[in-house]
Amino acid sequence: MIRIAGPRRRVATFVSVVVVGAVVLALGLTACSGEDGAGVIDTVGSVDFVNPLAIPPLAESTVNAAGERVFDLTAQAGTTEFTPGVVTETWGYNGSYLGPTIVARRGENVRINVNNDLDVATTVHWHGANLPAEMDGGPHQMVEPGAEWNPNFEIDQPASTLWYHPHPEGDTEHQVEMGLAGVFIVQDDEEAALNLPRSYGVDDIPVVVQDRRFDENGQFVADVRGYIGPIGDQLLVNGTLAPYLDVTSEVVRLRLLNGSTSRVYDFGLSDGRSFDLIGTDGGLLEEAAPMDGIRLSPGERAEVLVELVPGETVNLQSNPPDLGISASAATRNAGDDTLDVLELRAADTLSSIGETASTLASIEPLDKADATVDRSFTLNGYTINNRLMDMTRIDETIEAGATEVWTVDNAMPLPHNFHVHGVQFQVLRVGAEPPPVELSGWKDTIYLEPGVRYELIMQFAEYTDPDFPYMFHCHMLSHEDAGMMGQFVVVEPGEEAGTPPTAHDAIVPQSNLAVGSGPRVLAPAHGH
User: Fold this and answer.
1) H/E element, 93
2) Vertex 206: Cα angle to 204 and 210 (nearest 5)
3) Could you give the CA distance from residue 507 to residue 521 in angstroms, rounded to a whole number?
4) SS3 sequence, 220-245?
5) Which is nearest to 321 in space by CA: 271, 364, 362, 264?
6) What is the maximal distance between C-alpha atoms in the chain?
């Protein structure tokens, strides 16, 4: 049987159509060795919700002489007791696991001092942010051990729930699995004028959901895998096992983030009640939408409002997600799992903010007639358009300010999704149909059901750099690590793409620099 090279093992940069087709056939017919999945996991009723949900602290900030709001993040190794008395080796930002929640307002200039106290190189990518490519934190912006990186950019997008995480070439899955991730909340005046829950940690709650698997010594392991990547049998929510949340308000706002490296969730409530979906990846919807479940693939976010009555208990669950694949492939890829996520415990007396807003944001639809370029992207094997990632190759060149239509499809009978850096898109069509309500707002990541063409429209900002690229890729991180990624640059009209930094351009410790404070281009022999 033909086998794809596994995650973190680089495969040849030339893949023929014949080989890719054979890979697809092999994967469609049978599971590859080591990718048999975990069978069906059902934790409903078996989770004793005994731990109060950890709320990530708000990141502290100052305002410097230039008027920038300055945050400090340090990537560091540590240990965490997810279970009392059991010590797990973990990584985090400013702590042992995950990182603080960054909050900034539209129009602010921010500067984030990123220090790397790990013994390996890392990056920090601001997932969902509209910013210059050189500040994006992709694989060309490696921060070596002991080094500091100081991205600065203007917050120029609507109120939304973004996040940040590592993005090193070939090692993203491992670093995220170890715990490097955090929430980034953007605020603006339009959202502030709405009657919505927004007291952080009280009625406005980040909910970072990650599946993990522990060995007999309490250490993370990722050896039980499907084609999607590692499949955990326990859930961490904000780094908490078996969590409960004491709810003190009639309506609670949950900012759901699928922070898993592979697993797709279908979030709903245990008694089947509906919730109001108010926002997706890039901001609020135009109107609140009652729903009884929402599917989120890795990297996707959703803001939902849940109503409770005094004294009741209800659980956030993940029901078997519709992956659009065969029954046997779904079983091998966590598609049949039912998981208890978080217990919501309503107090006997609940506060009220009154009737919450149902009319939310103004979203100007992008017009297909204004698009100047159509591009097509087919995901197949670990390739996009039959290409594996090449750090020295620019795959697409885009003019600043352009409106483009990207048609994306998954040619495999197995799961993929698609994330674009530096831009939020709107979904024009799902197959032959207009998008469902959960895809009607701003998005930067989307699940790709096999055999369905997704028509996306996006307008690129005025940030230009012919040399420094943004990324597009599958956000199932083992796929990304194996090469399922491409690069694009945004240029001035008529300008050509330049030469991207090599894989070994890095931010290095000050003591290693020659005169000056900029990054050094390392010799080709240098390795991480």
Assistant:
1) strand 86-93
2) 155
3) 9
4) ECCCCEECCEECCCEEEECCEECEEE
5) 264
6) 65
SS3 assignment for 124-155: CEEECCCCCHHHCCCCCCEECCCCEECCEEEC
Which own/partner pairs from 438-441 qualify as long-range (CB within 8 Å, at least 24 positions apart)? 438/277, 438/280, 438/289, 438/291, 438/294, 438/295, 438/302, 439/280, 440/285, 440/286, 441/279, 441/280, 441/281, 441/282, 441/283, 441/284, 441/285, 441/286, 441/361, 441/363
Give the rounded distance of the alpha carbon of 100 from its chain centre: 16
CB burial readout 357-384, b (16+ within 10 A) else e? beebbebeebeeeebeeebebbbbbbbb
Residue pair 486/385 in contact by the 8 Å Cβ criterion = yes
The beta strands (E) that lie in 392-460 are given as 396-399, 403-410, 416-420, 425-430, 445-448, 453-459
SS3 state at 328: helix
Q: Which two tokens stand for residue 512?
A: 């290693």
Distance CA 155, CA 354 (A): 31
Residue type, 408: V
DSSP H or E segment with residue 75: strand 69-83
Q: In the 8-state DSSP scheme, what is residue 467?
A: S
Torsion of CA 209, 215, 220, 222, to 10 degrees: -90
130-188 pLDDT, tens digit each:
999 999 999 999 999 999 999 999 999 999 999 999 999 999 999 999 999 999 999 99
Handedness of CA 268, 269, 275, 280 (dihedral sign): negative
Of 169, 119, 134, 178, the residue nearest 509 (C-alpha): 119
Classify strands 243-249 and 51-52 as parallel, antiparallel or unpaired: parallel
- Percentage, residues of the chain above pLDDT 90: 88
Tell me the residue length of the chain. 528
Residues 6+ positions from 286 with CB-CB distance below 8 Å: 359, 360, 361, 362, 363, 440, 441
- How far apart are the C-alpha atoms of 411 and 453, rounded to whole Å? 9
Cβ(528)–Cβ(142) below 8 Å: yes
The residue among 30 and 214 whose pLDDT is bigger is 214
Calpha distance 144→412 (Å, rounded):
37
Per-residue pLDDT tens over the stretch 48-103: 999 999 999 999 999 999 999 999 999 999 999 999 999 999 999 999 999 999 99
> 431-463: per-residue pLDDT in tens?
999 999 999 999 999 999 999 999 999 999 899
Which token pair is 421?
A: 């850096």
Helix, strand, coil shares of the chain, percent, nearest 5, are: 10, 40, 50
